[in-house]
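[agent] plan:
  1. take the single chain provided in the ticket
  2. run structure prediction with default settings
  3. attach structure tokens to the ticket
  4. add a short note for the reviewer (M.T.)
[agent] executing step 1
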Amino acid sequence: MALHDEGIRFTEEHYATKDDVKKAYNMSMIDSIWDKVLLYRSNFLADTGLINIDHHPFSLTLYRNLTKKISNIERKIFQTYVRYNKEGEDFKKIFNEKVLMRFFIEMNYGDDSITEDMMLHIIRHDIGVLPANVAPLCAYQNTLEYFKNHEVNINKELLLAINGMVAGESYEDSLKNYFRSSEIDTPHYFQKNYIYKAAPLEELDGLIDNYLNFLNDEDFSPLLKSIISFFYFDYIKPFDYQLEETSSILAKVLLSKGFEDVGFLMLTEGIGFDHQEEIRKVKKIVQETGDLTYFVVYYLDVIDSDLDTLMDLIEEVKIQFVKEEQYKIDEPIMEEKKEEIVEEVKPIVKKIPSFIYDEENIPKNLVSQGEVALPVFPTGVEKNAIGSIVQNLMEIYPYLKKTQAHFYALHCTIGKHYTIAQFKKEEDVAYETARTSMDFLADSGFYKKSQIRNKFVYTPIPRR
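[agent] step 2 finished; step 3 output follows
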């Protein structure tokens, strides 16, 4: 029992390194204790398929508390998505400007020559002659907008396109480029425990293929893939230049595969442009141990905190938007009062038209359609009505995907319990897509999520 407790202590409570355990016991010889820690972690190992430069596999430990944390953060991303998409286009325009400003500030750290006022002009595309030092920000914004509006596959062409476009090239010209062609202070032979600055050129092609295989693995969530993507991209360094910009936009594309527009709102630049000593140490630990978990744990906290900031920003913009709308409403009222004063000298009497309402011409179902967002479903739904229900759902809740609306329309009987496996089978999607879709429906108030024995079930909630 004590040995099991050590596994929990140095994994669940704090994902410790071997040196951390030595310090905890104030001992240099802790091999027997460390073996027990590794034995406990072996119960939660996930096969990413990623290998290091020396052709040894990287490990990933999805221990209980880490899995719970990932689920909580994904839920928070879904909540952000719902709150963002409830707002209108005018709100989104203001909000998106502020989000882009956050990206620029993170990328432009330390350069006082580019002011926030200048950044705002770049964002609004109303700057005339571009100074040389702002060109990278313009190219970054253009690249971001392109991939936000285009569905893409995760492949070599995508990597080349992002890297070329953040350098100011067109999408078509970017595809003519190549991956890194020069060595980066890296030996052509393998040394034991060597800390690589980049992959040797002769290994690069194979490692890029390995990297892309992982990014297309549907057994891992977009959130997890986007975090690990940062480490591996920096580890092999597939390009000579624009590494930070390329990895940051690639992460947004990966996140958008599971979280739609919110993927492009998240501050991935906070990871891509992070060169602090603390993260250098974490990357060194990952290379030494071959354990990606240390990198994932470190940045989950960063992402969690940033999502709180993003939600606060939504509320901040809502307040600003309400004030601006109120100002627009008040402005014409003042003008009308001025006109009334002038008209007092020479009044003009206008006949006020009268309106006669014919109750028979008022649709009887109009009131109910306006008062409820969705009718309470009966104990079953006729199959021939599914198509119209799906269409109605997507019109009322435009943030729903068609598969989500379709599944809910078929599985909305009050009192019944539905599973991820059902969604996967009936909508013909990957398990990870089914899981995130069911969680999204639960977070949006369509289902109540609960656990029965070792699996999650989803129960429809009456909607009025």
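[agent] step 4 note for reviewer: The CA atoms of residues 149 and 345 lie 58 Å apart.
[agent] ticket updated
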